[in-house]
Write a structure and sequence with these properties.
The chain is an alpha/beta fold and 360 residues long. Helices cover 25% and strands 26% of the residues. Helix 3 (92-101) packs across helix 5 (119-131) and helix 5 (119-131) runs parallel beside helix 6.
Amino acid sequence: MPNFDIIRESKPVQSFRVASVMGKFDLQSNHIKERFTGSIDMPKDWQIGLIVGSSGTGKTTISKELFPDSYITEFNYSAECILDDMPKDKSVDQITAMFNSVGFSSPPSWLKPYSALSNGQKMRVDLANSLLQDQELIVFDEFTSVVDRNIAQIGSFAVQKAVRKTKRQFIAVTCHFDVEDWLMPDWIFDTDSMTFRSNEGQKKNRPEINFQIFHTKDKQSWEVFAKHHYLSHTHNNAANVFLAYVNDQLAGFISVLHFPHPKVKNMKKVHRLVILPDYQGAGIGIKLLESVGEYFMNDKQRYTIVTSAPSLIYALKKSNRWRCTFYGRRSLNNNKTSEIKVTSNNRITAAFEMKRYGQN
């Protein structure tokens, strides 16, 4: 659909207020006519497009006209838990996998109603819902419009990663030009100038994130992250605490304990690892985990983590920096694998040890 010529007209009924405004501002007619013309020459193989421009330049009008069956503004959320608001034909595993894919990786928040989520979380839930609808094309209006710009950029990167893992096509419609570098679209249509630009074949790199880690003695910082931890709200005060900041905003927490091993005397074990929901999906968790790991390994310590979070297990299994030392279920009684029912105390878990550079 390379060309469009759209005319929109409106003529409000003559009323006292209409006449008052026309007289006050010396308007000659209450007949308003707008025309939007342009060309969108989409490449043959593309997955992500961007329609961007200032307010009032025709973004929504063009999107609705060109893609009426794929246009999305909002979903109806009425359940007491967002899991129950997702498409009925999808399994729990499919839904949670999609949540993780779009960077919404906080199981405690999965149990909340949509109204209780932050704006950043709502954006990701809307995207997950869109991708679960099995539509080949998704046109998402007001993309990142209601979130902080720092969060919008991180979220845009998570979105493009999720879309590119599928065979779907996604068009973001927004007035914010700052998401382009993070969304990394294959094409852009600018409604300010009504011009089309193709990014097809160009190398796309995510902008650098201003990422800082601080070693702190402030154990109270855990209170900010506790409710987002998938397993426990408790924290051992003996643990070493590190905080991660993204663009000067608090984003992540990791704490590390000495692991009392019967044979190994220099073993450290990750105690808690949490990335705030608005910063999930951009690889910040792995960067924090490995950066702190390097800190301890440079001090000739070994560095391990045990987790039952599916997204983290997946990331560590495909990384050449980590060696999986255990995968399965541990019994609390004898610390051996068993075929018992998975409960909060007997989950499927995985243990990993970080390898030094060059180590097999």
